[in-house]
Write a structure and sequence with these properties.
The chain is mostly beta strands. 0% of the residues lie in helices and 45% in strands.
């Protein structure tokens, strides 16, 4: 029996650093995900997988969050999480990553919406009700 234990939503794949920042010369916010290359004053240079580097201008109140590897056992009822999902060929939504938010981010982006990171992507931000393991044969 192969354990599927929500491990497919393990935090391991989260090596990206999401940042909401001001793009140079733009009046809009931009979402940038990648690895930080350099921080020079209010200019943040990010290595975006498959796209090279991107430099963004940070506003005075910009917030940048890092990620760290977690285990399934770290997820507790009451945690506020973001689940990155994709719609499978079976029509079901399958989680491919899970992020445990710090308490200061509780409620941010709550709900479900399309996500452009993967084809047929969906993002769900919500409070964990219960945590359980499941097995797939």
């Amino acid at each position: 029996m192969r354990r599927l234990a929500l491990l497919l939503v393990a935090i391991g794949p989260m090596i990206a650093l999401p940042a909401v920042a001001q793009a140079p010369g733009a009046a809009e916010r931009a979402r940038v995900a990648g690895t930080v290359e350099k921080l020079d004053g209010d200019r943040l240079t990010v290595n975006v997988a498959g796209s090279g580097t991107q430099t963004v201008m940070l506003s005075a109140d910009a917030k940048i969050y890092g990620v760290e590897k977690r285990r399934l056992s770290d997820i507790k009822p009451g945690d506020f999480v973001a689940s990155g999902e994709v719609r499978g060929t079976d029509g079901q939504i399958h989680a491919v990553e899970l992020r445990i938010f710090p308490e200061s981010m509780r409620g941010v982006g709550e709900g479900q919406r399309p996500r452009d990171v993967k084809p047929e992507g969906v993002m769900t931000n919500a409070t964990v009700g219960t945590v359980s393991l499941s097995a797939k044969t």
